[in-house]
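Internal ticket - ligand job 112, guanosine-5'-monophosphate:
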Amino acid sequence: MSDCIFCKIARGEIPSNFVYEDENVAAFNDVNPQAPVHVLVIPKKHIASSAAVDDSSVWSSLMSSAVKIARKLGLEENGYRMVINTGEQGGQSVPHLHLHLLAGRNLGWPPG
Ligand code: 5GP
Ligand code: ZN
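stdout (structure tokens):
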């Protein structure tokens, strides 16, 4: 996907400081953070949304990377939230699968 913003970030075409990177996953700070810690974890391969995942290894790499990042950032003691918005009513605005890792304040529930 040549014009997908998260593909461009994953390919390094838009300079970003990766919080974490491996063969399958990249993670970087959200440009509009909703909490003191707001990291986006994405598969490097373009997948439009959670609904388009057809290979369960995508979930293992995404979720295990998010937990590793939480550990690396010292979030385990106070806790954190992982969110994947999907589709219009789910609040997804970027059509490349991403997991939000949020922490650093008391997060409200239910979400708006
Ligand atoms: P969604 O609403 O799709 O669940 O989340 C998309 C997220 O991507 C939003 O939190 C938004 O702030 C973030 N975002 C959109 N464009 C960019 C960008 O170019 N760089 C970064 N770092 N974050 C972005
Ligand atoms: Zn993409």
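Auto-summary: The pocket of zinc ion (ligand 2) is lined by residues 1, 4, 6-7, 46, 96 (CB under 6 Å). Residues 5-103 form a domain with the HIT family, subunit A fold (CATH 3.30.428.10).
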